[in-house]
Amino acid sequence: MLGALASFCLMAIGAKELSGELNTFQVLFVRSSISLGVVLAIIAVSGKTDLFRTQRLKWHSFRNISHLAGQYGWFVAIGLLPLAEVFALEFTVPFWTAILAYVVLKESLTARKLIAILCGFLGVLIIVQPGFKQIDFGVVVILLAAICYSFTYISTRALAGTDAPLTILFYMCIIQFPITLVFALPHWESPNSNQWLWMAAIGITAMSAHYCLSNAMKYADAAIVVTMDFLRLPAIAIVGALFYAEKIEVTLLIGALLMLVGNIVNLYQPKRKRVASDPQES
């Protein structure tokens, strides 16, 4: 989780440093290029060429267009809002996912999910404060990005039953690579050495963040991982305050804390239930 926290923060710093200097699609193209190279190398070394095969190309296309839209919105919001506010509003993804899973996948809305959704929306209201201050365009962008990421998650759930994780990752790269290239070319600028360094950092940390997060899930309960993941908010708030003179608002921390409580309520399972579900643990 420390690796995940460091990766997410470094990726955000890279996006902040490049904001206004290079076209966002150019940054996303370099990120896709690095990811595609890594995935192809893994497939080549493993020799599992069957990972290229899928019967669900429509789901892959839907997943990766929504994921790319979410990425684009996240990078744009980084340039418009304080880093901590972007991270805080990004924590709404699980709540949007619960709603969309109910609508699209017909998953049930349990009492815990409803409490989590309520906490999430209360958190957003406290952070955004509609009616008390003007809603920034960046707030709208990051909330739309969070909804796009939610579509990505429910698509991943739908694909996970038939396709391997590496297959899902491969199609993410192979679909996003040409799209980002097409949109990047008309506005392509020759990056300097410092910009290449930040783009490389974004490409590497984008993969390392999710790799570390996925592996953390193997060693700890999801509720613990989510709680630790919340630490990237105060971490990025400190970075924003020290390097970009960004103010840390109390309302932002209160709203984010409400979202954290909602996530924990949704994910927490009593110990007796976990033991009963796994005879080997008892």
TrEMBL record:
Keyword Transmembrane helix (UniProt): yes
Topological relation to the membrane, as annotated: Multi-pass membrane protein
Superkingdom of origin organism: Bacteria
Listed transmembrane segments: 25-45, 65-81, 87-105, 114-131, 137-154, 166-184, 196-213, 222-244, 250-268
Domain EamA: 2-128, 137-266
SUPFAM superfamilies: Multidrug resistance efflux transporter EmrE
Subcellular location: Membrane
Any Pfam family: EamA
Record's keyword annotation contains Membrane: yes
Keywords: Membrane, Transmembrane, Transmembrane helix
InterPro entries: EamA_dom, EmrE-like
Record's protein name: EamA domain-containing protein
